[in-house]
Design brief:
five-stranded mixed β-sheet, alpha+beta, 18% helix, seven-stranded mixed β-sheet, Sulfite Oxidase, Chain A, domain 2
Length: 312
């Protein structure tokens, strides 16, 4: 998947002013509201019709938000099935409260955190990213969450920590897709520590101003704007800091197709299809794929001197 941020857009440009101000007023008292307190600033932005055309970058044509209905019914979440509509159907009764995130490994302050321990209303940020799948389709989504580096800083990584490993909940009784050996379970992903600390990396708790739906990775998922979407691990229960590169689910399952880095690179084709273009969900025309999903000016320095065809 490809993820793209509109760095200059304000929330008031996405939502009409009255709805935006009502949301901010709600967040001021969110501590008294169960869902907001547990999920961290998950107030509703109001009717979806108030969300308008979204992102601008480098003079490119304005891009419209993908409709909420499409974002929440066309998903990759193999824990609930391999079909695009399986997660929406199979995750309806998945309970995400209470939820604990374990942070351990090479950190000074390992602990089991509840969501409300660090996802407070005043820490929430809204960002519009373009999410791109390796199958060459994409969406434009307004995410709500907390910058990953804030959580990392709270744990205080030790000098030997070079990577962060993320793990999804393993519960085949509640996640029927895990009963199939399609990939190694539990789902695991990883980032270099400098990638994880980058200000664009986001721990997501919501989208479209609403609490993150189960099928989209509730209650806590990762979004990394310059990488394909399989790096954006869902329903995270553990972050482990390591000295060595961790194993990742798709790289373990099909190493010739899915590399550890998964940086969006139009010059590196998937063995079964080209990655040079993408199709926005709901559109027929294809768009040019941009290096690092258009974030080269922000993230290319992270890979200076690396062979990006070998380290795909």
């Amino acid at each position: 998947m490809l993820i793209r941020k509109a760095p200059d857009i304000r929330s008031s440009e996405i939502t009409d002013e009255s709805t935006y101000l009502n949301r901010r007023q709600f967040l001021g008292v969110a501590g008294t509201v169960g869902a907001a307190a547990a999920g961290g600033a998950l107030a509703s932005l109001g009717p979806l019709s108030t969300l308008e055309a979204a992102t601008r970058r480098g003079g490119r044509q304005e891009e419209a938000l993908t409709p909420y209905e499409d974002v929440t019914t066309y998903n990759n979440f193999y824990e609930f099935g391999t079909g695009k509509d399986d997660p929406h159907r199979n995750a309806r009764n998945f309970r995400t409260r209470p939820w604990t995130l374990r942070i351990d490994g090479l950190v000074k302050k390992p602990a089991d955190y509840h969501l409300e321990d660090f996802l407070e209303p005043h820490t929430a940020e809204e960002r519009v990213y373009r999410l791109r799948c390796v199958e060459a389709w994409s969406m434009v989504i307004p995410w709500l969450g907390i910058p990953l580096h804030r959580v990392i800083n709270r744990a205080e990584p030790l000098p030997g920590a070079r990577y962060v490993e993320f793990t999804t909940l393993f519960d085949p009784a509640r996640m029927p897709g895990q009963r199939s050996p399609v990939i190694p379970w539990p789902y695991a992903e990883g980032l270099r520590l400098d990638e994880a600390m980058h200000p664009l990396s986001l721990l997501v708790t919501g989208l479209y101003g609403k609490e993150l739906p189960n099928q989209n990775g509730a209650p806590l998922r990762l979004v990394v704007p310059w990488k394909y979407g399989f790096k954006s691990i869902k329903s995270i229960v553990r972050m482990r800091f390591t000295e060595t590169q961790p194993k990742t689910a798709w790289n373990e399952a099909q190493p010739n197709e899915y590399g550890f880095y998964a940086n969006v690179n139009p010059t590196v084709d998937h063995p079964r299809w080209s990655q040079a273009s993408e199709r926005r969900l709901g559109e027929f025309r294809r768009r040019e794929t941009l290096m690092f999903n258009g974030y080269a000016d922000r993230v290319a320095h992270l890979y200076s001197g690396m062979d990006l065809r070998k380290n795909f």
